[in-house]
Amino acid sequence: MRVDVEHEIHALPPPSVSNALICFAFLQVAFRLDFEFSKSVFLQSLEIFLTTKSDSEEQESTKGDNSVLLKLPLKYESDLLFTRSSSQDYYEVKPNRSLERYDSIGPPFNGTFKLQNLGLFPVDGVAIKITVPVATRGGNRLLQLSGFRVHEGTTKCHIGGNNTDYRRAPSDEDLGRHPQLNRSNSDMISIDCSVNLAANGEVSFLLSGNLWMKSLRAMRFKSLRLVIHAALQRGFRSAFVFREEDPSRQIVFEISKVEDSQVPTWIIIGSTLGGLLLLGLLVLALWKLGFFKSADRKREADPGQSGKDLD
């Protein structure tokens, strides 16, 4: 849509100087233009045509720079609500497999990133990039991403980036130096989607899968965080800018491993022998102190009392 507005600006001498020339050599005039834009009219750019003229005589050779056309692209601050949710925030790996309630793969998870346009204008030229850590750098699988779908909205998505050669049998990889696995230290699946949102429109990105229990049991760690990262990106020619400096969200799966509490056999045998040895030393000490002899003398010294008790 094009809106044309014409206005003239006159340069006049100050009231204290009468009949004075104001067009001195190298004279510069500065002025400021303030615009108020309609909330119901979307404009891609603003064009300002400036021209100057005076009543004095001017050579034709210098009139070429008396006008200029300024074209300024307009940027609109988008009113986007970016949220995330997850069905699985914490999981505990138990040493006893019989306590697990899931199949051989592992516990399922579901994650959702949701984008809502709360503004008055449609939003285009925006993309979302989702990265999912699927394996360690040592080739141990972390999770299986079994499903991805987009609910509502106009989007085009591309999935790629996973060329991991998974180990057939998981190794005891030490993750002590990497308590958090993310896009910087893991093998990733990358999902890139272009987004077009109507006014008051919304779009949801749904992920589903399972944690990979074979690797999680084999690897060495006490606490581990798997981070699924989603970030908004604007196109170079997009008319919209984000309010946030870093418009990104994260879904974090925190996994802890419970150490096997089974007591070794040698500890049980050693504890039993130690207890018997202490009991023997206690009996020996009481015998040396005459505890058993004093009880015998007391029974021999009062036989009548014992008979009365029997009667």
Topology, element by element:
Elements: E1 45-51, E2 67-73, E3 76-77, E4 80-86, E5 90-93, E6 108-117, E7 123-135, E8 143-151, E9 154-160, E10 180-181, E11 187-197, E12 202-211, H1 213-218, E13 223-234, E14 240-241, E15 248-257, H2 265-288, H3 291-301, H4 303-310
Parallel strand pairs: 3-14, 5-15, 10-13
Antiparallel strand pairs: 1-2, 4-6, 6-12, 7-11, 7-13, 8-12, 9-11, 13-15
Structural notes for this entry:
The chain has 311 residues and is α+β, with helices and mostly antiparallel strands. It has a domain at 77-257: ntegrin, alpha v. Chain A, domain 4 (Immunoglobulin-like). It is 16% helix and 36% strand. It contains 4 helices and 15 strands. Strands 5, 7, 9, 10, 11, 13 and 15 form a 7-stranded mixed sheet that branches. It has a 4-stranded antiparallel sheet with strand order 4-6-12-8, with no helix packed on it. Strands 1-2 form a two-stranded antiparallel sheet. The termini are far apart. The model is unreliable at 306-311 (pLDDT under 50).
Question: How would you sum up this structure in a few lines?
Answer:
The chain has 311 residues and is an alpha+beta fold. 16% of the residues lie in helices and 36% in strands.
Oligomer: single chain
Major β-sheet, in short?
A: 7 strands, mixed
Strand content: 35-45%
Share of helical residues: 10-25%
Instruction: Spell out the CATH superfamily of the domain at 77-257.
Output: ntegrin, alpha v. Chain A, domain 4
Q: Tell me, what is the CATH class of the domain at 77-257?
A: Mainly Beta
GO biological process, one term: integrin-mediated signaling pathway
Membrane topology: Single-pass type I membrane protein
Subcellular location: Membrane
Main location: membrane
